[in-house]
Amino acid sequence: MNMLHRLLPLRALALCAAALALSGCETLRPRVDVAQPTAVRPSAATYAPISNGSLFQSAAYRPLYESHRARMVGDIITITISEKITAKTETSSTLEKKGSVSSEITAVPLANVAQLAKLGAAGSSNNKFDGRGTTSANNNFTGSITATVIEVLPNGHLIVSGEKQIGLAKSVDVLRFSGQIDPYSIQPGNTVASTEVANVRIEQMGRGANQDAQQIGWLAHFFLSISPF
């Protein structure tokens, strides 16, 4: 008995540790698969060969009317984020089922006919179900972020990725963006709309006291996970 009493606190401690571990798994925030790294440094420039006296040097060539659009690894580009997602779903279903049954006894050997008139059975059933549901969602996301070209694909498309962090009142707002850009979609001023970017990944999240205040505690997570309601 003494050994059993000693094991009870250990079992309770083990159960609490298991609940804490499970609740920790549930509080993990979903992450968006943003291309990493969100910044890249351009490679060091190669030294030009010794001049041979010609006015044209291929190593130092720069087009006279060169556009300032991003086109190389390390170049930056401004993304104008304007995303709007609207969805609406309506469902309606109706189910009705009716049934009836009746029976009557008219003749039984050695029985009075007057008494048989009282014998019989009847039954009916009526089931009806009518269900309706409507779901709607409307999400708007606007803003801007300056991203860095981290890769140039063989077809000339640019893989860009960027991150913005703003700290205010003991909280940090983080915005991450990545996607694939066709250079022909880049507008004057070296900007491009997010609607012109392929494979867009946008993540907006916060860290700090304000974000922690919106999280459910681990004990509440535990009871919600086992609650049947």
UniProtKB/TrEMBL annotation:
Pfam families: FlgH. It is found in: Cell outer membrane; Bacterial flagellum basal body; Membrane. It comes from the Bacteria. InterPro entries: Flag_Lring (IPR000527). Belongs to the FlgH family. GO terms for molecular function: cytoskeletal motor activity. It comes from Aquabacterium commune. Keywords: Bacterial flagellum, Cell outer membrane, Cell projection, Cilium, Flagellum, Lipoprotein, Membrane, Signal. Residues 1-21 form the signal peptide. This is Flagellar L-ring protein. One of its GO terms (biological process) is bacterial-type flagellum-dependent cell motility. It is a lipid-anchor. One of its GO terms (cellular component) is cell outer membrane. The basal body constitutes a major portion of the flagellar organelle and consists of four rings (L,P,S, and M) mounted on a central rod. The keyword Signal applies. PANTHER family: FLAGELLAR L-RING PROTEIN. Assembles around the rod to form the L-ring and probably protects the motor/basal body from shearing forces during rotation.
